[in-house]
Amino acid sequence: MLITSFKSTYSQPKLYFGLLACLVLSAGLYLTYIQPGTIYTDGGIFSAVAYKDMNGGTLYVDAWENKPPAIFYLTEFFFSIIPNHVYALFVMSFMTMLALGVCVFYLFYRYFESLSISLVFYAIASYFIIYQNNIGDGLCTEIYGTLCITSSLVFFEHYRKQPSNFILILSGALLGLSPWFKEPFILICMPLLVYYFHSLKSKTLIIKCFAASFIPALLIILLLSLDHSLGAYYDTILYNFHYSASTTDNTQALKLIDYFQNLIQPVLGLSILFLYLTIKNSVNPTTRTESLSFLFLFITSVLFVFVAPYNLGHYYFPSFVLFFVFMAKQYAIFKTHQYAIALPLLIVLLYYIYQIDGNSHPKFSYKIVPFKGDKITERLIADKEATLFVDYVTMSSYYVASDKIHPAFLPVALPVHFDDSEIGKKNRERIWHELSTKPPDYLITTYTTSYCSWHFPETDFYEKNYEKTDSVFPPNENVIYLWKHKRH
Question: What pLDDT is stored for residue 449 in this prediction?
């Protein structure tokens, strides 16, 4: 077992208690923000694409989104085992967040070798990890890629205590899986590979670990080939280079300010303490490589934010998690080769718990509120064979809530895909062709239509062919209109 190998250094009952406590804490924070039916733009798009891929569509051909395929395959797995797709997404995100909490706490316990410090440190970390602005609806690709990174590290740390080929291969494979949720995770994989290779030393073991990191790539390429999607995915990769080059948003200075204000400043004293430990570890030739590997692990997670085209909360998620893993590891290195500072550290941690509780008053919930769709959802569910196109970006959740397959190549028309570039103009032509030749039975819009429809050859296409039949006014949201095709 993963736990029994640490009997000489770690107490099983203490570890079990700590894991249980972290699960309770993580669940309470998660359920405060996310309930069944909490589905935002990205989660709605991913689930709609996955559902179409399961029901006659072809990924990256006519069920298109420019993310790597792992998020769609994972979603399809949960759709296949949980019939109600709203609850399938909820269970998927809930289990992922709890698994991430277990991995992070386990690393803390492994590094601090103290239940009290690990629990208090996890309490602080969980406040920043399960941070509403960063986790969104719990379906962002960054969350799943981060779980791959942390679980890989968990298994590698286990391997260092009790060598096993299976554990080493599992660690390498999980690391290699992370970029298949989002490509920039390749940056984060690099310093971890340096740490793994430095720790392994043996060329044979290094080759095994490195080869294992390619297992997910081989399996996913095989799946794409069997689905006749590989060529379309290659085109999507090329498309992403255009996408990244053509999208600009907030300045890097604003991202830096947001990062500092939301993470570093609230725990500034703690950050300075661990910066000191990092410097001490880095100047010691014995610990330099290990310390710098984790320093660069953290730095690459920060770069994850700055290479992103926009300033969105979920881009910060990997860095918020790895910030605390990095600090715990620096303490472990310092303690092993210098001396323990357990009591001063515990006092500092308790101070920050007091600060967070006094300033932010974190709330916890242990209720799951059953999902109840609005009257538009109920009407769409009742018309089982009808088709739907959502022409309002933030309402892509209607697809999964009503079990509808989007007729166009993408579920919602994000403006960035329909710009004035050559690719953008081709996308305009394509979506016009798909919607005009096979018009959906229903449309969903807000008080205006999307950017792509402004460029239709018939700008009054909706008004000529559809009539508004219903509307809802969600709290803190624009009005939502349901349009029905006049011949339906």
Answer: 87
**Tally: H helices and E strands in the chain:** 21, 4
> How far apart, in whole angstroms, are the C-alpha atoms of residue 403 and residue 296?
44
- Res 245 pLDDT > 70: no
Contacts of 69 (CB under 8 A, 6+ apart): 59, 60, 180, 220, 223, 224, 229, 233
Query: Which comes out higher in pLDDT, residue 161 or 248?
Result: 161
Which residue shows structure tokens 């939301």?
Answer: 262
Q: Answer whether 443's CB lies under 8 Å from 483's CB.
A: yes
| Pick from 484, 422, 432, 420: nearest CA to 458 | 432
Parallel/antiparallel/unpaired status of strands 388-390 and 442-445: parallel
Tokens representing 40?
A: 């935002």
Q: Is 282 exposed, middle or buried (0-12, 13-18, 19+ CB in 10 A)?
A: middle
Residue 71, token pair as written in the block: 């998020």
pLDDT at residue 446 tops 70: yes
**Which residue stretches of 12-140 are H helix?**
12-33, 41-54, 70-81, 85-112, 115-129, 132-135
Q: What does DSSP assign to residue 310?
A: S
Show the tokens assigned to 174.
């999980």
Between the two ends of the chain, the Cα-to-Cα distance in Å is 60
**Closest Cα partner for 234 from 59, 71, 55, 417?**
59
What DSSP designation does 474 have? -
Please choose, from the candidates 212, 248, 180, the residue with its C-alpha nearest in 3D space to the C-alpha of residue 416.
248
